[in-house]
Every structure is written in C-alpha cells, then in structure tokens.
Fold Adenosine deaminase domain-containing protein.
Amino acid sequence: MEWCVSMPKVELHAHLNGSIRDSTLLDLTEGLIGTGVIDISEVEHIIKKYNRSVAEVFKLFDLIHILTTDHNTVTRITKEVWLLGCHVVEDFASDNVVYLELRTTPKRNDSAGMSKRSYVEAVLKGLRSITSVDVDFIPHCADSKSLFTPLPGIGHVRKRIYVRLLLSIDRRETAEAAMETVKLALEMKPFGVIGIDLSGHPCIGDWTTYLPALKFAREQGLYVTLHCGEVPNSKEIKNMLDFRPQRIGHACHLEDEHWRQLKSSKIPVEICLTSNIRTLTIRSIHVHHFELYTKIYPGIHLKNIFSEPDDLVDAGDLYKAKHPIVLCTDDSGVFSTSLSKEYKFAADSFGRFHFTFAASNLN
Ligand SMILES: CNc1ncnc2c1ncn2[C@@H]1O[C@H](COP(=O)(O)O)[C@@H](O)[C@H]1O
Ligand SMILES: [Zn+2]
C-alpha cells in the first residue's frame, strides 16, 4: 500500500461532492442542526450505511447537496463550497495525485441568490485559496490574474498538484440548463475549466436531451466525457459510443457489439472499481471488465462459478486488450476510497499488472 501511495498518480474521474471527507460532512451536518433543513436521525442512517445500491447512493448525493448548497445566503454557500474544494484537493495531493481533473455540477439556488455561475466561482476561489499544497490551476493565461491573486510562496516543501475542472450536466436537468452549463464552461475556460461531463442517476432521463449542448461543447473545443453503461441500456450505450466522446466513465454493461465498437474507437475508459462493486453495478471483481477472471485463469468458466450468462465470458477485458484505461475513485468520500486504494485493489484482484499503464495508455 505504501508504494501505491508514494507513486505519483493521475486522477481523471472524481466528483467534487462525492469526494467530501466524512469529517467535513459531519461539520456541515452540525451546522444545519436546528435550522429545520434536515432531519438528523434520517441523515445519520444514510451516512453510516456502508454498501449502498445505486438508488441509495443518489439519495446520499441529494443529502450532500442540501448540506453544501441549501443555505439562506450565497455567502454561506460560497463558504461551504470553498471549504469543500480546499479539502478535496488537499486530500488528493496528500495521496500523491499530481494531476487531478475534478468534476462538479453547477447548482442554482434562487432563494439564496445562487446561480450556476456563482457556484463555479465559489469552487474556483476555494481551489485558489489553498496554501498547504502548490496548486497549478489556471492554464497559461495572463487574464486570469485579474480574477485571482497569486498564491503566496512557501518554498519547495509544498506538494505540487495540477488541477483542472470539468463541469457536469446532471441527467435530471433540462436541455436549456445543460446549455447554460456548457456556456459557463466556455466562459470559465481561462480559469481552468477544460471540459464537460454527463452524469447523474443513470436510470433517469434521456441522454439525447443533452446532445445539442454536448455537440456545442465539442465544437467550441471543450473535452466531453460521458458516464456510459453504468446500468444496462443497449441503445444509449451504442449512441454514446457513436458520439465519440474524449472519454467514457464506467462502461460496466456493454454488450459484445459495444465492446468491439469501443475497442476499435480506442475511447479511453475511466475505471471505478470500488464504486462499481459498492453500488453492485458489477456483481464481483472477478467479472469486472478491467480484466476478466477467465483470462487470468484460463479454463475456468465464469458461468460455472457465478452462474453468469454465456455471453459474459466474451465480454470486455480491457487491460489485456491494451485498451486505454485509467483507474479512478469516482466518489472517494462516499465510497471511503482513495486513488492509492484503487491501485492496491486492482493489484490484489488482478495480480501482475504494471502501473505504467495509467499515464502511458491515455490519448
Ligand atoms: C456512483 N456513480 C455515479 N454515477 C453517475 N453520477 C454520479 C456518480 N457519482 C457521482 N455522480 C454525480 O456527481 C454528483 C456529486 O458531485 P457534484 O455535486 O457534481 O460535485 C452526484 O449528484 C451525481 O450527479
Ligand atoms: Zn462518476
């Protein structure tokens, strides 16, 4: 494990509100006691549960959103979001993540005067205010200095971490709200926003709602990554692969034709092992598409062990196929993981694999 921690790593799939530390979550909860906004007894039950279904995980996200953005004033929300951004980046830096792409869904709270824009500004300011680690946040742009003051120098002892931001579209949003997010991302490009993600409850909504916004994002030079195949949905998976995003996340429920399409397209896959196992999206690590058990132990058929259908035996084995993949945390707070733990999990589960794949296999 120490080796996994000490190795410099790249994190490409981390949701800001999913990466919140337990202690921060509890601080935020305490801050809302007596306000009538939440019922503590109900909150505790959700927070303390270990294995959660996809539906329960999304219940927890609703709760986290209340904790971070359901306040009366935009100043209070800014403070919470700011704090959250600081802690999350510090945690990744202490795990020796050297390049971090953090994604978050811009949120509106009209009653507090909070807009998607002020939410993103709060995140950016939070990231800029970190002094414990040396954050390289803004891509080379002179104008950026007008918005943020430079960080104070504390010599060479601070760890350096490159942070870039992706703005997420939630599958519950309207097409207009998605377009607003894309335009905001374009506006915030000089300040470190580099792309768009499509996420949210995988059983909700129709992704084609967001196609105009996603196409516009791509035309304007933003990178696009999609949560794809987290649950079975053959038509959606095919259409998403046809769209040819820069990357996809999860890719758990691809069928044979999808695997073929994915492999020939070489679209890199963000692999989230713990997330997939904890949400039961994948039944066992031995049938995970990172590398199939049958390929490690030839001759042993999955259907004999797990009563899986025949076609699973021929499903994805992305590592073996040298497909571009990268290990990611998804929601390190919600799933009590870290990027080092994901590397350790992969090493323990799949044995002899080489760590160099993470950076070198990516486009
Ligand atoms: C477990 N697998 C997942 N599948 C799909 N979407 C997920 C997710 N995990 C997180 N999110 C998305 O990220 C939001 C939290 O971070 P932000 O508020 O954006 O910072 C969640 O509400 C959800 O929309
Ligand atoms: Zn995700």
The CA atoms of residues 202 and 231 lie 6 Å apart. Strands lie at 9-15, 97-104, 134-136, 160-170, 193-199, 223-228, 247-250, 269-271, 325-327.
